[in-house]
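Handout, page 2. Input:
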Amino acid sequence: MFYEPGITKSGLKYNPFKSCCVPRPIGWISSVSKSGIHNLAPYSQFQNISYDPPVIMISSSSRPDGTNKDTVANILETGEFVWNMATLDLAEYVVGSAVSYPPEVDEFEILKIQTAPSRCVSALRVNASPIQFECRLKTSIFFKGNTSEANTNVIFGDVVGIHIADSCIKDDMIDLIGLKPLARIGYLDYICIDRSFTVRSPHEKPLGTVPFLNEAGGSILK
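Output:
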């Protein structure tokens, strides 16, 4: 199959583009408006783009009428937001917060999600989330879409504070397998990370060595 986006059709029932770029980390973003209304929403086009200093990115399409969604509007107004790690245990709340509520609705209240105060920004944190980044707006870029709903704002944020629950630290590292972070894989589907394997650097192993998983699926065979 081959098609040219915007020129020819894929022939599939659903647009396959987002299902080709997987898995996508979830940007579960909390923000607050200038009037003090808190907001919480998930974004599947999210990523860290720099580590020193730490910078993250969120990409948000617009509402059908072309106006900004609450998250973008709040961040552009206040310059602050929080990323909360989405995990399997929190999946019901993550999906619930994806509903498009009016701007005056506080998702924390309507979904009964317990909050925690931030130290450096005004936006609240999801108390049950094991890891959160407090962020300040670095810059934003607007991309005009082929339709009003496809208009996109890309938000870049400086990470100014990082919260990591002590319970998810094991052997001086974050126990990601134990946390089971959520990711999107296209359509309405999610996955959780529940296994990993290690690939050693070519400098540590002879070139041409083929890595294999052990029976537990957890590491490279020696």
